[in-house]
Amino acid sequence: MFLTIQDVQKNFGNTEQVLKDINLSIEEGEFVSLLGPSGCGKSTLLNIVAGLLSPSEGQITLDNQKIIKPGKDRGMVFQQAALFPWLTVEENVMFPLKKEMKKAEAREIAHKYLKLVQLSNYAKHSPHELSGGMQQRVAIARALAVNPRVLLMDEPFGALDEQTRSRLHHELEKIWIETKKTILFVTHSIHEAIKLSDRIIVMGTHPGRILKEIRVDIERPREQHLEKMAEYEKEILNLLKVELDKVENEELQYASSY
């Protein structure tokens, strides 16, 4: 299997267990979403895959190579675009390439990916001249410019308005189809996960763990199959409701013991 998460646990301090018994295999070219309530460890797991955090137990391998630190084989897109305000759009996309190649080659690659995200005409603009959605497209272009094998996305559209978010769903799906990148995507949005994913990993909390893996068997574009999407949404809502009810009962029992 291309990307393998095996028996991963993550603790912060001596008592707080954030992730428990995470086992997941992802095929090359697959679009997989991590979905669950706040506190279920979605972003923590993504950061472990990125090499920004280490698991307390277990391991993650990419093409049979153990992940122990960040690497060019994984590109990261965060909720905020995190662009350098003193650099142009073009220079932001070129930034991770500067140490690897000559400036002219880096610029050529930057323009290739700016064209892919439909921002070629904004190469010389500053980030503050762009909308939030356009800034996120620059961040995606920057992540793709290093040609990663896996694109890691941590709620990249969470701060955007619904109209912009919907438009970027369409853009991301086009990019994924064209580049054939493996994408691991963190989201709170059930609709977003169903719309974009081949497979959804529904996570529970206290501690974070996998409740169920759901393969989304709907033809793309999925907006043409709203009834089927609604069926998946109902299934996921029921799963999460049971989980949240369980957490509330545990908290009530804990409070009543004092």
UniProtKB/TrEMBL annotation:
Keywords: ATP-binding, Coiled coil, Nucleotide-binding, Translocase, Transport. PROSITE patterns: ABC_TRANSPORTER_1, ABC_TRANSPORTER_2. Residues 222-250 form a coiled coil. It holds the Pfam family ABC_tran. Residues 3-230 form the ABC transporter domain. InterPro entries: AAA+_ATPase (IPR003593), ABC_transporter-like_ATP-bd (IPR003439), ABC_transporter-like_CS (IPR017871), ABC_transporter_ATP-bind (IPR050166), P-loop_NTPase (IPR027417). The keyword Membrane does not apply. GO terms for molecular function: ATP binding. This is ABC transporter ATP-binding protein. The lineage of its organism: Bacteria, Bacillati, Bacillota, Bacilli, Bacillales.
